[in-house]
């Protein structure tokens, strides 16, 4: 696929699409590495401004490669994209990025490292650097370790420093590649809170992850990659809508319960064993459909079926993810 | 800020159907367009806006994407990112309808980055250690010569000259060190410049900052050149001080037998420093080019040093005299033109032209490689 921008003699970057609505747009974005590996295959992505966008996919599905292309680190083989309505070189001062883990100068302190990366940004002011660096360190809870050499940082501290580096200036877009990698549970929660906080200021956050629960909690939108291809793309709600909520009934009288549920018109009624539980107790599950769970309970009891427990399992992104990317553990390609 | 409901994602199927850029271009000029040139990028909007409106049905499922070839004018094309993003400085875009103005480049930003680079180089223990080694060599050579003998012994050439005058040690130190030790020192710094950052992963963050590839390359080269001059100056200073302590001061007798004042002798040392510094800066360009090709700094450093040694060997083969003028190390030793009477400006000029040619050639190679390279480290 080739460019068409030259045909009308248009200077590049003059109000391209996405200038108002989308923080990131890609069209047929493709990366074939030397050696023939197609890491990203005709990717069409639209990341609305102000969204928290989860970018999901199993290992090796092309998330990092996509992010590298968006940051201008890797040149696409084909396709087009825009970041903040323009090309990376112009957009990057307004973009904070974390790509494939932290990378800093081991012999410098955390603070000196941030000063170094701030100096690399031609739009950053030297005068405000000290204040911005202190704020960024404060935000990720590293103030106490600011003067410590990076070499002596723990994995979580390194990850935090990388997030601090992404927050050095006023950002319109944050691109975070697996930001909670290596963080302790508190750190993970803090990052989640931080992302929500940043998003509430109107900053778009594009976050890659394979922690589905995390994405479900933080994100408004998500896209799922598999082997370089986009397999799903939408709001979290619309993604989950593909998988129905299920009611799960724990009962010693599984056939009876199943019969009642079928009688009420519930679809996909299944009887499952419960691991390690009382041998006589079984789990009967069915698609909830439009039924009210309390009515189901009443109906079961009315029919003389003993109910030990009743729960509604909302579909999780994990179900969607596994459905779209397969159960297999091995990486593709 | 958009919520999940009011901004469903682009329905790709719709976009495919509606994006016919060439034909829709003239009719769909958006009203907010300020210049005629901006019409082309605007033409994507219909397709995208339409699909935004109808892409996801209410309550409908997520967009499951079917890929297909389509063109969207206005997006960053491969050709643009590959050839223009870095290679052509961009005229500021007429930010039509983009609410927050793009932050402006700051005056002095280049010097700030260079300052950061210099601070990094001159605070790094390894680099300081190499300078210290360079400083020690003239001291050792001076003490050695002092122990070997007094001026009236029948020593010949350079050794006699050094023993006879305090300033001559500087030239002796140069003629010894430019063969290998100074080239190695400069190669370590310049060869590590890009490869070290790539290997450590810091390169991707520098470029995402965004440092700019051409700008970063320029900074890296200037930094290596400053280090090359620093190394040269360290050798000269150490040799000068050692010479003044160990050997008699006074008018300098040149190799040709002419005698010049001590002040003029110092001037000629300054001239030699300028020339040798330029020689080492030319070598830095070679090492930097090597550095652009690898993520392993030791590889770039070793390649440069091997090249230097190979050239010294080739230079020593009489049958290959014809190629000698094209080899960089051939010109390293020509600083002795400052010891002629009068100074052999022609030889110095010739050497400087060779250095310039090497800087241009290897600078271009480094730039060609680095500006289009995929940063996958
Ligand atoms: N420099 C490279 N050369 C060749 N192939 C590469 C290169 N970098 C990545 N790949 C391949 O591209 C594919 C996508 O890799 P990428 O790093 O984008 O995956 P990812 O989705 O980020 O995975 P993870 O979740 O493990 O981080 C993989 O198959 C990988 O082997
Ligand atoms: Mg990755």
From TrEMBL, chain A:
GO molecular function: ATP binding; ATP hydrolysis activity
UniProt-listed SUPFAM superfamilies: P-loop containing nucleoside triphosphate hydrolases
Keywords for this protein: ATP-binding, Nucleotide-binding, Transport
Keyword Methyltransferase: no
Gene3D superfamilies: P-loop containing nucleotide triphosphate hydrolases
Domain ABC transporter: 24-252
Protein's name according to its UniProt entry: ABC-2 type transport system ATP-binding protein
Native organism: Nonomuraea maritima
Automatic annotation (TrEMBL), chain B:
Low complexity biased stretches: 1-51, 63-73, 93-103
Record carries keyword Cell cycle: no
Region (Disordered): 1-103
Domain of life: Bacteria
Transmembrane annotation, as ranges: 128-149, 155-181, 224-247, 267-289, 296-317, 351-370
Compositional bias annotation for Gly residues: 52-62
Pfam name, any one: ABC2_membrane_4
Keywords: Membrane, Transmembrane, Transmembrane helix
UniProt-recorded name of the protein: ABC-2 type transport system permease protein
Organism of provenance: Nonomuraea maritima
């Amino acid at each position: 696929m080739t460019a068409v921008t030259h045909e009308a003699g248009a200077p590049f970057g003059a109000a391209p699409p996405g200038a108002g609505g989308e923080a990131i747009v890609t069209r047929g974005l493709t990366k074939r590495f030397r050696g023939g590996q197609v890491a990203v295959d005709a990717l069409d992505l639209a990341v609305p401004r102000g969204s928290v966008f989860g970018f999901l996919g199993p290992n090796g599905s092309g998330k990092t490669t996509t992010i590298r292309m968006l940051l201008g680190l890797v040149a696409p083989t084909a396709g087009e994209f825009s970041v903040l309505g323009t090309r990376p070189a112009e957009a990057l001062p307004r973009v904070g990025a974390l790509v494939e883990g932290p990378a800093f100068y081991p012999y410098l302190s955390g603070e000196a490292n941030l000063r170094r990366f701030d100096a690399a940004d031609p739009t950053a002011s030297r005068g405000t650097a000290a204040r911005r660096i202190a704020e960024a360190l404060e935000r990720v809870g590293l103030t106490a370790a600011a003067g410590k050499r990076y070499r002596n940082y723990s994995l979580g501290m390194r990850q935090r420093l990388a997030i601090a580096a992404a927050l050095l200036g006023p950002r319109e877009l944050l691109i975070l590649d697996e930001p909670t990698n290596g963080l302790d549970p508190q750190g993970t929660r803090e990052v989640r809170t931080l992302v929500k906080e940043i998003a509430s200021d109107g900053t778009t956050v594009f976050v890659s992850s394979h922690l589905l629960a995390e994405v479900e909690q933080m994100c408004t939108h998500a896209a799922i990659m598999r082997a370089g291809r986009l397999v799903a793309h939408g709001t979290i709600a619309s993604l989950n809508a593909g998988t129905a909520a299920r009611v799960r009934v724990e009962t010693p009288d599984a056939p009876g319960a199943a019969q009642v549920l079928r009688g009420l018109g519930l679809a996909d009624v299944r009887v499952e064993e419960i691991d390690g539980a009382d041998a006589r107790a079984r789990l009967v599950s069915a698609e909830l459909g439009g039924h009210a769970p309390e009515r189901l309970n009443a109906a079961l009891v009315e029919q003389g079926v003993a109910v030990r427990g009743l729960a509604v399992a909302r579909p999780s992104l994990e179900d969607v993810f596994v459905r779209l990317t397969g159960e297999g553990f091995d990486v593709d390609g | 800020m958009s919520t999940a409901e009011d901004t469903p994602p682009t329905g790709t199927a719709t976009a495919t159907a509606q994006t016919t850029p060439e034909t829709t271009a003239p009719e769909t000029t958006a009203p907010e367009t300020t210049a005629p040139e901006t019409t082309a990028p605007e033409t994507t909007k219909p397709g995208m806006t339409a699909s935004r409106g109808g892409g996801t049905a209410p309550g409908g499922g997520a967009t499951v994407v079917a890929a297909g070839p389509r063109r969207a004018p206005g997006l960053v094309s491969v050709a643009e990112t590959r050839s223009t993003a870095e290679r052509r400085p961009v005229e500021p875009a007429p930010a039509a309808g983009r609410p927050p103005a793009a932050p402006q480049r700051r005056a002095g930003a280049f010097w700030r980055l260079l300052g950061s680079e210099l601070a990094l180089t001159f605070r790094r223990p390894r680099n300081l250690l190499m300078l210290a080694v360079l400083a020690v060599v003239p001291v050792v050579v001076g003490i050695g010569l002092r122990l070997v003998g007094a001026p009236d012994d029948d020593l010949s050439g350079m050794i006699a000259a050094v023993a006879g005058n305090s300033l001559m040690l500087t030239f002796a130190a140069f003629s010894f060190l430019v063969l290998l030790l100074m080239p190695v020192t400069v190669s370590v710094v310049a060869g590590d410049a890009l490869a070290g950052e790539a290997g450590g992963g810091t390169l991707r963050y520098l470029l995402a900052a965004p440092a700019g590839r051409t700008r970063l390359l320029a900074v890296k080269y200037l930094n290596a050149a400053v280090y090359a001059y620093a190394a040269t100056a360290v050798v000269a200073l150490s040799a000068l001080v050692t010479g003044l302590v160990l050997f008699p001061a006074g008018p300098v007798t040149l190799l040709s037998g002419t005698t010049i004042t001590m002040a003029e002798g110092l001037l000629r040392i300054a001239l030699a420093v300028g020339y040798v510094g330029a020689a080492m800066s030319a070598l830095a360009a070679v090492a930097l080019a090597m550095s652009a090709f690898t993520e392993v700094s030791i590889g770039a450093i070793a390649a440069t040093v091997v090249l230097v040694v190979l050239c010294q060997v080739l230079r020593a083969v009489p049958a290959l005299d014809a190629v000698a003028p094209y080899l960089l190390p051939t010109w390293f030793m020509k600083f002795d033109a400052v010891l002629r009477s009068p100074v052999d400006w022609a030889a110095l000029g010739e050497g400087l032209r060779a250095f310039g040619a090497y800087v241009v050639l290897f600078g271009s190679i480094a730039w060609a490689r680095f500006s289009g390279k995929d940063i996958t480290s």
